[in-house]
Amino acid sequence: MPLLPSLGRAVGTIFRWTRLFGRSSIRGGRWAGRKVGAVRTKGAGGEVGMTRLLDLHAASYAGDILIAIGLAGTIFFGAPIGEARSGVAIYLLVTMIPFAVLAPVAGPLLDHFRHGRRYALATTMLGRAFLAWLMSDYIHGFGLYPAAFGVLALSRAYGVARSAAVPGCCPRAWACRRRPPAPACTA
To answer: Where does 44-182 have alpha helices with state H?
Structure first.
C-alpha cells in the first residue's frame, strides 16, 4: 500500500505546480500587456491617432512577414541557384515598379478626398488580405504570381499612404524637435 500515498502526493504536486505556472503566466501576460501599452502610448506621444497608426503598421508588417514566409518555399527558393538570378532580378523589378508608378499619383489623389489617407490605408490592407486569401487558393497554380504582384503593389501603396498620413497624426510636441531646413550652400 505505499504506492497509493506516493502517487497521491505526486499528483497533488503536479496539480499545484500546474496551477502555480498557470497563475504566473496569466500575471506575466497582464504585466507584459500593460508595459507594451505604456511604451506604445509613450512612443506615440499620447496621440490616439498615432497609436492607431502604429498598431496598423505593426499589423501590416506582420502580414508582410507571413506572406514572405509563405512564398519562400514556392517562388524564392523553388528554383536552382543558376535560375534564381533571373528570378531575383524580376523580384527587384516587380517591387520597384509599383513604388515608381504609385508615388507621384497617390499624393494628389489622397489630398482630393476628405479622409483620403484613411481610405487608402484601409483599401490597401483589405486588398492585401483578399489577395493573400487568393494566394492560398492558387498556391501551385499560375494565379499565385498575379496575386503576389498585387500584394507587393498594395504593400508599396500602403507605404506611400502611411507616409502621407504620418504628418497629420504626429503630436504637436514633436514639431519642436524637428530640425530646421539646411541652409543653401553659397559658393
So the answer is: 48-71, 81-112, 116-137, 144-169, 174-177
Q: Who contacts 182 (Cβ-Cβ below 8 Å, separation ≥6)?
A: none
* 3-state DSSP of 11-23: HHHHHHHHHHHHH
Q: What pLDDT score does 56 carry?
A: 85
5: alpha, beta or left? (left if phi > 0; alpha if psi -120 to 50)? alpha
Give tens-digit pLDDT for 50-102: 788 888 888 888 888 888 887 776 665 666 667 667 767 777 776 677 667 76
Nearest-CA neighbor of 162 among 101, 69, 78, 99? 99
Residue 7: C-alpha distances to residues 20, 82, 108, 153 (Å): 20, 63, 74, 62
Q: State the Cα–Cα distance between residues 142 and 101, nearest whole angstrom.
A: 24
CA neighbor of 108 nearest in space, from 161, 166, 167: 161
